[in-house]
Fold this sequence. Notes:
The structure holds 2 protein chains of 2 kinds. Chain A is of the alpha/beta class. Chain A has 2 domains: 175 residues, Rossmann fold (3-Layer(aba) Sandwich), CATH 3.40.50; 56 residues, no CATH class. Chain A is built from 10 helices and 13 strands. A 6-stranded mixed β-sheet of chain A has the order 6-7-8-3-9-10, sandwiched between helices. In chain A, strand 9 and strand 10 form a beta hairpin. In chain A, helix 4 packs across helix 5 and helix 8 packs across helix 10. The longest helix of chain A is centred in the middle third of the chain and has 16 residues. Chain A starts with a strand and ends in a 5-residue tail after the last helix. Chain B is mainly α. Chain B has one domain. In chain B, helix 6 runs antiparallel to helix 9. Chain B is globular and about 55 Å long. Chain B starts with a helix and ends with a helix.
Amino acid sequence: MISASGLIKRYGPADNRCTVVDGVSFHLAPGTVFGLLGPNGAGKSTIIRMLTTLSRPDAGQCLIDGIDVAAQPMEIKKRIGVVPQENNLDRELSARENLMIYGMLHRVVHLPERISAALEVVSLWEKRDTVVSHFSGGMQRRLLIARALLTEPTVLFLDEPTIGLDPQIRRQLWDVIRKSRRAGRTVMLTTHYIEEAEALCDMIGIVVAGRMIALDSPENLRKIIGEYVIDFPDEYGNQIQIICRTREEAHEKARALPNGVTIRRSNLEDVFINLTGEKIE
Amino acid sequence: MNGWYPIFLREMLLFKRKLFKLGYLFSAMVVPVIYLITFGLGVGRSMPIEGTDYITFLIPGLVAMSSMTNSYTWVASALNLNRLYFKTFQVLVQAPINPFAIMIGEVLAGMTKGLFASILIITVGLLVAPQFHLSWLPALTLILNCFLFACLGVIVGMITKSHEDTSTYNNFLIMPMSFFSGTFFPVSRMPEFLQKLIAIFPLTHTNILIRKSAMDSQGLLALAVLIAYAIVFFFFGSRLIRKYSE
């Protein structure tokens, strides 16, 4: 279970403080996969940093499994696994050495067996003794996930887990995240890939300029804006979307439009554009 | 508190990788050996100092200087890079271990690297200066010096805001200490007003103690100063780690 209430984080000198996270609140039931969606610089990573003990909030409270993150960080650290946005593996150590050090820091029991299992999950067992600097970007991301899963955390945080990866590797990582959910973990991830949020998340939070402007299941978010979308080109060839509440409404409006009209179900990208007025990059 | 071991082990694994590259051994020895040749075998060849030949005077100073620069630089530089660029320090902070354990692990690793470099210089010293020998007091001083400067390395590694910042501390702290604290000549040869300033430097007291074969009142004072510095640096470094927040 993850809960945040009124989280605020400011950076900068006292006379010119910049509010990066501005009163963010949410509550996640155990076993939820929660996606924070937002443009670059929206404050998604800062929220993750506060929840994972790396950054102290200026105001507000975070609870994980009912434990206050600020008051009992040591208890929180025992429960969480973190995949950061930046690759923070030791590049001059092998995959196995990276996991060994991490496992020792977290006092993982039966460490050799757990390392083998974690490397098998991300298909890196064959490369266990290869130095990480010789890994491709995708392999390094997989190793980061293996490292986060090594401690069998109850809550898994992934900050842009598939950024810059090719579609095949991305789908492999999605499978690992789905397995995590099936194992009963609460997963919180940040992404600016709409299709990633749609493929994985039970709950979506849309963050813009440090504020959570929407928080619901993907299905409910679609219902909020309207479940159907009419796409058609205007006289200049630009693609126009009209969002409609029902299929009947969409058909009725489409009849009045010129040829080339398509009707489809709305998706998270429509939700995002509708709520923020901007396309996610 | 036993969380220090994986941190120490990590540093040693990384150190082992570097050790087998010839460049490391060379870089650890090059500066003190240049000083040894220039000052010991060149400038001061037939210059007696404090009742002994110059090279026998110089070698303990070079050992102290080498232990200082290696203990300090390895920790300050690595911690700064790991915190700001590689982000591996965040892995330690997010592990369920006491901040003291992080401090101990980093300091022990820094000490090991400082002692390793010192042993290289001691080996060279034993070869070129037959009168030079190492008793328990200089050995103890060496360990304390490595501890103290590794702690200072943690402080600088934690407070610097960029990697370039660390060179500022090198230029204003480490470099003056190397030259003025009695490494190359006794502090008593400096003008009196400077002697008082130089007495603030911890390396000055290391150089006093490392050249003693038996403890006396001057040695006791130097030891007390070094212990005081070590305690202050250790707790200040630990506090910086405990208060770490992004």
